[in-house]
Design a protein that fits this description.
Mean pLDDT: 80
Strand content: 35-45%
Number of helices: 2
Order of helices and strands: HHEEEEEEEEEE
Shape: globular
CATH architecture: Beta Barrel
Radius of gyration: 19 Å
CATH topology: Lipocalin
Number of domains: 1
CATH class: Mainly Beta
Length: about 160
């Protein structure tokens, strides 16, 4: 009897400690996802101090290398790809997995030829100012102890 009570208490403790606010555990916002499907280009990357501070975006390259990058989002499969093609930066292309949750968070995994379920890390950005022809992804970075927004401006190609 003591073992059953002990196991019951341990089970309650484990389930009560589980985070319910994870970006990946929330429901998908189908309307926002459908609006993003298609091909896009990043037209600008802005953040305070951009003339002085270098930001490495998505652990891949300098944020300015993302200007002109092409992104393809397929809403039905939550797949796509991105390609850096700036003449002053190293070219790079990779498949991605993505979705937008009900909290307006864009969850991105860079796959580098791996399957999405084997990639354990990713990025969570906020979706803002979404229209038929443009939207923004906003990342938060720490600059000298202050959280700063990095704004990626997307423009629809077709």
């Amino acid at each position: 009897m003591k073992k059953i009570i002990f196991l019951g208490l341990v089970s309650i403790l484990i389930f009560s400690c589980k985070s319910k606010n994870s970006a990946t555990s929330t429901k998908i916002d189908s309307k926002s996802q459908t609006a993003i499907k298609g091909e896009w280009v990043i037209s600008s990357v802005n953040y305070p101090g951009s003339e002085v501070i270098k930001v490495t975006s998505f652990d891949l390259a300098d944020s300015k290398c993302f200007i002109g990058s092409k992104w393809k989002f397929v809403s039905m499969s939550n797949k796509g790809n991105m390609a850096l093609n700036s003449p002053s930066c190293t070219t790079y292309s990779t498949p991605i997995s993505w979705f937008i949750n009900k909290e307006g968070e864009f969850v991105l995994k860079i796959l580098d030829e791996a399957k999405a379920k084997t990639v354990k890390s990713g990025y969570v950005l906020r979706v803002a100012n979404q229209t038929d022809k443009s939207f923004q992804l906003i990342d938060k970075i720490n600059v000298g102890g202050t959280l700063t927004d990095v704004v990626y401006q997307f423009q629809k190609i077709n």
